[in-house]
Design brief:
Layout lengths: L2 H8 L3 E4 L16 H10 L5 E4 L1 H11 L3 E4 L15 H10 L3 E5 L11 H11 L5 E4 L3 H9 L4 E3 L18 H10 L4 E4 L5 H8 L5 E4 L1 H4 L1 H15 L1
Length: 234
């Protein structure tokens, strides 16, 4: 799938994130079961799937034949980011057939001493046709990733870095709007979109598309949100 084909397919749409990592209820060590979540997501009309781990990229592509935004979550010593932090993960995702590779493009410390700017250059030199999605947490990082030549900027990490924690559980609509206005590449609104009304509002900020994950594909998170509201009402 070409970049244009992918971007045309997702424009104005909701991408569903189907992920389960070790320690989560839907993570099964013996075999990926995320393809079942992806099956439901496809039936619901999503144009693409975002997923983590090589095995889930492979299983979901086989099951759905939808384009996949792939990433690998792994924590290396010295790295503050954990989303596709090194070339090894990029190599593995490319070999697995990920249509888009998502990576941490925050300005946090990288254990190999390189900057994220240098890492992006290295990736594009090795894979000139790769489609890169930059997961960022604030405006500065989004602008930096855009200037580095990524193809898509996602607000994925807003609220998940030490310097963007705000105490709110709302999507970062302001960040979505500013980046959609001030860059000339597609911006994907992602992060803390829990309800359909929030999804609609996120798309109204001018972003190219949105990603919704936990609100749809993480049953423990969904159940806990209900329980919290019940406790607060007492």
């Amino acid at each position: 799938m070409t970049k244009k084909e992918f971007l045309d397919a997702i424009h104005g749409q909701m991408i569903i994130s189907c992920q389960a990592v070790e320690g989560e209820p839907l993570y099964v060590e013996e075999k990926s079961i995320m393809y079942l979540m992806a099956r439901a997501a496809k039936q619901a009309g999503t144009p693409a799937i975002r997923t983590s781990s090589i095995r889930d990229v492979v299983a979901i592509k086989e099951e759905t034949e939808l384009p996949v935004i792939g990433l690998v979550k792994i924590q290396y010593p010295g790295y503050e980011g954990y989303i596709t932090p090194t070339m090894k993960e990029v190599d593995d995702l490319t070999a697995a057939g990920a249509d888009v590779v998502a990576l941490d493009c925050t300005l946090r410390k990288r254990g190999d001493g390189t900057t994220v700017n240098e890492f992006i250059v290295q990736i594009k030199e090795k894979y000139p046709d790769i489609i890169l999605m930059a997961d960022i947490s604030n405006y500065e990082e989004g602008i930096n990733a855009w200037k580095c030549g990524v193809d898509i900027v996602g607000t994925t990490m807003s609220g998940y870095t030490a310097y963007t924690v705000s105490g709110t559980d709302e999507p970062d609509y302001e960040l979505m709007e500013r980046l959609a206005r001030d860059t000339d590449i597609p911006v994907i609104g992602e992060g803390r979109i829990h309800y359909p009304e929030q999804a609609v509002r996120a798309l109204q900020t001018g972003v190219w598309a949105i990603v919704v994950g936990g609100a749809i594909t993480r049953p423990l998170e969904i159940a806990l949100r209900f329980q919290k509201k019940i406790r607060e009402s007492r």
